[in-house]
Design brief:
Length: 315
């Protein structure tokens, strides 16, 4: 029954790992995916809004997709097509969309759905936080209507775009700063946990062996991560965006710390860094604004994610 399912908006920039998060959300029995909002990020908005519909078509659902921001609120646009390919999906075959782009902007849809579902709406954000930043500026009452934001982004000790910054936060630090200061309960699944929630090549092969179009597609998107992340000394492909979606589905698989997290917007070398007092003297913790996810039960994570994708082969 829909009444017992968690209403969710997935705000994303597909992207190979966003695509796996989409496949998880589309079939999850616990969720009611009420909208997908696309933002420029890994590739341009024309491609992210197209890819979201391609992946949902692969999933066999027609969840409405709405386009959002074509660039950051401030500063120059930064893409990650060197990781995700020119089309955002590394050229991995996916069907053409079976449904058109929805009418309206992402931030207006976020506000409309927040009003519709009251304090029950959860937003899972797996791209730059531009759409949410704009929504919060345009609709100051939005925080009182959102249950939680689970985001993939940030890190405590290192970056993957600069030495200090993770990509999603670096791509629009000002928007991220607005989100972290919004008062909405936040869960940050950053590099601290995504590099611990990885698939080995053997586990990717087992996923592909399921043989469904969805599992094969997911496995092929994961495969590139094994080689790419060798330089980060990760023994497999980190599940960046799927980690945030899996937290929304099964938070018991993870451990976290309640703490204060802020975003550096000005630093010459540290722009886009998420700064936390979780491991310091905790002088800011009286104003804790987030849960910093630090650990994952990796073997159970892999098993459950695989099971969820295997569901596409069931009647």
């Amino acid at each position: 029954m829909d009444e017992n399912r968690q209403p969710v908006i997935l705000d994303c920039d597909p992207g190979i790992d966003d695509a796996v998060a989409l496949l998880l959300a589309a079939r999850a029995p616990e969720l009611k995916l009420v909208a997908v909002t696309a933002v420029a990020g890994n590739v341009g908005l024309d491609k992210t809004s197209l890819n979201a519909r391609r992946v949902l078509t692969l999933a066999g659902v027609a969840v409405p997709v709405f386009a959002g921001a074509s660039g950051p609120m401030f500063g120059e646009q930064v893409t990650a097509d060197e990781v995700h390919g020119a089309d955002g999906l590394l050229g991995i075959p996916a069907p053409e969309p079976a449904f058109p782009l929805g009418e309206g902007t992402a931030w207006d849809v976020i506000w409309q759905k927040a009003q519709e579902y009251g304090k029950e709406l959860v937003i899972v954000a797996t791209g730059p936080l531009t759409n949410l930043g704009i929504a919060l500026v345009k609709y100051p009452e939005l925080p009182s209507h959102i249950k939680r934001i689970v985001l993939m982004g940030g890190a405590t000790d290192f970056g993957n775009t600069t030495p200090a910054a993770e990509y999603n936060i670096y791509a629009d630090p000002e928007a991220a700063d607005i989100v972290f200061r919004s008062g909405i309960p936040l869960v940050m699944c950053g590099l601290d946990v995504t590099h611990k929630a990885y698939f080995t090549q053997d586990e990717i092969d087992q996923l592909e062996a399921l043989g469904t179009p969805q599992a094969v597609f997911a496995a092929r998107t994961m495969g590139c991560g094994v080689e790419w992340h060798q330089r980060f000394l990760v023994p497999g492909a980190p599940m960046h965006d799927p980690c945030a979606m899996m937290y929304a589905l099964e938070p018991e698989l993870f451990e976290g710390i309640s703490c204060w997290i802020g975003v550096e917007c000005q630093g010459k070398y540290t722009r886009g860094k998420t700064v936390t007092d979780a491991y310091s003297d905790a002088k800011m913790s009286s104003g804790s604004n987030a849960t910093l996810v630090t650990q994952a039960d990796r073997e159970t994570f892999v098993a459950h994610l695989t099971e969820r994708l295997a569901a596409y082969g069931m009647p």
